[in-house]
Specification:
By secondary structure, this protein is α/β, with parallel strands linked by helices. It is 33% helix and 24% strand. It folds into 2 domains: 6-83 and 199-271, 3-Layer(aba) Sandwich (Rossmann fold); 88-195, Hypothetical Protein, Haloacid Dehalogenase-like Hydrolase, Chain: A, domain 2 (2-Layer Sandwich). It has an 8-stranded mixed beta sheet with strand order 5-4-3-2-1-12-13-14, sandwiched between helices. Strands 8-7-6-9-11-10 form a 6-stranded mixed beta sheet. The longest helix is centred in the first third of the chain and has 12 residues, at 24-35.
C-alpha cells in the first residue's frame, strides 16, 4: 500500500458527476479507502448545509474542508473545528459594489447558505440552474440580504457572487480585487470571496496539523481554479480529466473525468496501490 495517508476530493466537477451524483464505483473506492485506514476528506467550496444530502452516502468521509477552507468540520462528530470570517467592513463594501450589478449575493454563515428568495427562484439567470433544486432546499431565503446583513452584521465565512454574465463578473473582479480578500473564479460567471490568505490550501494545512498528518502524505483531487493552491501543496496533486487545462498542467497526474470515475482511479492507482 502507498505511503499516502489522506485523500481529499473536491465536490463539483470531481467526486460528483455531471448529474451531481456519486457513481457506485467511486463510492465503493471511497469506502474501501476508509476501511483500509486511510483518511478521506472533502475539499470543497460548498458549505455544510449544501453537503447535507451526501452525509449518509459519504458516511466514511471523516472531515470537510468546506467553504473553500474557511470552515473545517468534523463530519463524524458533526461539529465545527475551525472557521475564519470576513471583516464586516469588507462585506459592506462588497455589498455596495454588487448593488450596482445584476448579481446574486450568496452568503455562507456558520455553515449555512443565505440569499434573496427572488433570485433563488431564478438561479438559471445567474448560470447556476443546475443547482436550482439544491438551493430551493437548503438556502435560507430573505427579502433583502444586504439589508439583513447591515442590520445584524452576522458572521460570514464566504461570499459567492453569481453574475448574470461573464462581463459583469469581470467588472466586479476589477473593483473587488483592490480589497484585502482572497478571490477565485468559479462556475460560468461566479466569484468566490474568502478572508485574506484563506483557501482550500490553508484549510488542508490546518486539518493536517489537527490530524497529525504530514502534507507530503496527502493526495488532493480537483478540477478548477479554487483547487489550484491546495493542489500545489499536496503530496500528490491529481487533476480530473475534465479539469481546466492549466490545472492539468500544474498537477502530478491526470485521471479520467468526473463522468468516468476519475476519483476511483485516483484511489486505486495512487492511494491503495502497493
Amino acid at each position: 500500500m502507498s505511503h499516502y495517508e489522506l485523500i481529499g476530493f473536491d465536490m463539483d466537477g470531481t467526486i460528483l458527476n455531471s448529474q451531481k451524483t456519486i457513481s457506485p464505483r467511486t463510492l465503493d473506492a471511497v469506502n474501501r479507502a476508509a476501511r483500509m485506514g486511510k483518511r478521506v476528506i472533502l475539499s470543497t467550496g460548498r458549505c455544510i448545509s449544501e453537503l447535507e444530502e451526501f452525509r449518509d452516502v459519504l458516511a466514511s468521509v471523516s472531515h470537510y474542508v468546506c467553504e473553500s477552507g474557511a470552515l473545517i468540520y468534523d463530519a463524524g462528530r458533526q461539529r465545527v473545528l475551525h472557521s475564519e470570517t470576513l471583516p464586516p467592513d469588507l462585506v459592506d463594501q462588497v455589498l455596495e459594489i454588487a448593488a450596482h450589478e445584476d448579481v446574486m449575493v450568496y452568503m455562507m454563515s456558520s455553515g449555512q447558505a443565505l440569499a434573496n428568495k427572488s433570485q433563488v427562484a431564478d438561479t438559471g439567470r445567474y448560470h447556476m440552474g443546475i443547482y436550482q433544486k439544491m438551493m430551493d432546499r437548503v438556502v435560507n431565503k430573505t427579502d433583502d440580504i444586504a439589508a439583513l446583513y447591515r442590520e445584524k452584521h452576522f458572521p460570514v465565512e464566504k461570499l459567492n457572487l453569481f453574475s448574470a454574465s461573464a462581463d459583469i463578473r469581470e467588472r466586479l473582479h476589477s473593483r473587488i480585487c483592490r480589497l484585502p480578500l482572497a478571490l477565485a473564479y468559479a462556475e460560468g460567471a461566479s466569484l468566490e470571496l474568502s478572508p485574506l490568505n484563506v483557501s482550500k490550501a490553508s484549510g488542508l494545512v490546518w486539518l493536517c496539523r489537527h490530524l497529525d498528518i504530514p502534507l507530503h502524505k496527502t493526495i488532493i483531487v480537483g478540477d478548477a481554479d479554487n483547487d489550484a493552491q491546495v493542489l500545489q501543496i499536496a503530496g500528490l496533486s491529481v487533476a480530473m480529466g475534465n479539469a481546466l487545462p492549466h490545472i492539468k498542467e500544474g498537477c502530478d497526474v491526470v485521471v479520467a473525468d468526473n463522468d468516468h470515475d476519475g476519483c476511483a482511479e485516483a484511489v486505486d492507482l495512487y492511494l491503495l496501490k502497493d
